[in-house]
Amino acid sequence: MTNTSKSYKELGVPYFREIFDLLDETFKSRGIPYYLLGATAISLELLKDGIKPSRGTKDIDFAIMVSSYADYKGLIEELKEKGFVNVTDPWTFYHKRFNIAIDILPFGEIEENNTVNFNERNIDFHVLGMSTILSSAGAKSVQIEEKLVNIPSLPGMILLKLVAWSDRPEKRENDLSDILLIIKKYYWLMSEFITDQHFDLFELLDDSVLSQHIVASRVLGREAAEYLRLSDQLRERVFLVLEQNINDQYQSAIAKDWAGKLDESVEYTLSLLQAFLDGINEKL
């Protein structure tokens, strides 16, 4: 367990405590294991090194392990009694009092071929990688004041976000922002680990922050490979997304998005993607 002992205030999410208390109570009363995903989970990981959240969010993502659609529906009915209403997608809920939207993403035995079918609206949700990455070995517990919450590792988070973005790129721009944030902060967050375990990459470093990002991306790829060994389907999807974007060159959706956010060239952001892929290949 990693003990961050951080406060709700440091997360910078208005009413996060109130929402989290409601969900934590409901999940635990039903014996449902849950995981915090997305920008809030990344903020928790970065806060342990004193890195403040770069953007606030009113969208919070949770993944829950359930055995059937009936169990999921029972949970949702209880949450509706506590003030949540279903909006847009069948897994998205809004609490008017706290002005916060949450995604509750089911995985586990409810899955069939890495997909959850929301019967009443005939909508499929792809959960590829969740069971693999959110296993006991793929997640960690962090502390927010008196509560513990499970979050994925940062390499695992990148894989989940690549899959989610590739499924719905028109709605998932924040996934690319979150991946880039991890790459930008990882070198200093994990500097001791990189020095001890990945010292062979020091030859790539110069005096620039940009070279640190390259090294961080390569290390993240190496660490992500541990999950890709466990799932052929996850590995195939991640390779497809990375190789397609690298081969697209100047038309790469990911590289163009990152170039705009970093105010750097597409050539440079393509090198970040290539470094991540190289790291994966080195360990597979």
List the helices and strands and how they pair.
Blueprint: H1 8-11, H2 16-29, E1 34-37, H3 38-47, E2 59-65, H4 69-81, E3 84-86, E4 92-95, E5 100-107, E6 115-118, E7 123-126, H5 130-133, E8 139-144, E9 147-152, H6 154-167, H7 173-189, H8 191-197, H9 209-228, H10 232-247, H11 253-262, H12 266-283
Parallel strand pairs: 2-5
Antiparallel strand pairs: 1-2, 3-4, 4-5, 6-7, 8-9
What does it look like?
This protein is α+β, with helices and mostly antiparallel strands and 284 residues long. The chain has two domains: 8-152, Beta Polymerase, domain 2, CATH 3.30.460.40; 166-283, no CATH class. Helix content is 52%, strand content 16%. It contains twelve helices and nine strands. It has a five-stranded mixed sheet with strand order 1-2-5-4-3. Strand 3 and strand 4 (92-95) form a beta hairpin. The chain is globular and about 55 Å long. The two termini are 27 Å apart. 41% of the residues are buried. The model is unreliable at 1-5 (pLDDT under 50).
Structural class: alpha+beta
How many domain modules? Answer: 2
Fraction of helical residues: 40-55%
Class of the largest domain, according to the CATH hierarchy? Alpha Beta
Mean pLDDT across residues: 85
- Chain oligomer state: single chain
Radius of gyration using CA atoms only: 19 Å
